Amino acid sequence: MSKPYVSLREVGRLLDVPPSTIVYYKDKFQRFIPSVGGEGRRRRYPAAVVEVFRRIREMFADNCSVDQIERELVLRFGDLLGDSCFDQCSDQYVDQRVGRSAVSGCGVHGSCRPEAGGVLDKIADALENQSLFRSEIRSLRDEVDTLRRERREVEREYSTKVSALEKEIAELRRRMASRASGGGIDFPPAEFLSGPLVICSEGEYLGVQGKGGRPFSLQDFVRLIERKMSESMDVEISWRRQDGHWVLVVRTEDRPRRREQNIVLVSRRTVTPSGNIVTEVTRLNIDGNDAPDALLLTLFRQLRAVFNG
């Protein structure tokens, strides 16, 4: 270090230690911290004390006791601080700002300190410590102000997100209410879609059964339409409830031929005489024309061939 003397504030900056901690070290191990100069902020310390403070900090970090630290300081820095302290006491530290000289003595050789100046030196120490504490308090206040600003920004961001979520929830509730009142999109329950799909011909319920005994369902019918027609057609499927029935509307468009076709399948939940719950097709309309029962039977035969193939 190029400077022969340093202040406690400079020691703190060099070691990246809060001023209050440096003051604590200085008061705790005062006889190992020689000083020269005037009162208060004018007091200076030999540059060698930086290493003393560094070692004190390291040993405190290692949970060493005060006795252990003092023994370490005596063994490691006793000669260095003793010689420098003797030299400092024989010289005068000139204060250029007030045009006078003063010797404050040191902590290692108590006889070097003039008795008359003892009280003034203690007052100077207290004033310097107070100055360091005030500096640290200002630093802490700046940190608190920064944290408060960050908290306000987080709260504003949080409030914005909560407001957006509340709007989305309100919109979802509005849609659900509209759907419950019949004004929105409706969809059949899963048990209705998965039930056996049948037609009633002359009092007999006819269905389609595939391999493994699994019955052909309305859900299978919709998938079949989507798979077969979507290869060359645009398919649009929608549902609605009407007089206790479910109405399936299939709109197709043959892209190459630019031909449209509308298929309407009306079905309902039915219990057969044998007690089976089935999905009965009550009406099939193609382009505005209702299909006769014979066509429904033909359709079911074709479905059987496709479903079992």
TrEMBL record:
Residues 7-71 form the HTH merR-type domain. GO terms for biological process: regulation of DNA-templated transcription. The lineage of its organism: Bacteria, Pseudomonadati, Thermodesulfobacteriota, Desulfovibrionia, Desulfovibrionales. InterPro entries: DNA-bd_dom_put_sf, MerR-type_HTH_dom. Keywords: Coiled coil. Residues 130-175 form a coiled coil. GO terms for molecular function: DNA binding. This is MerR family transcriptional regulator. It comes from the Bacteria.
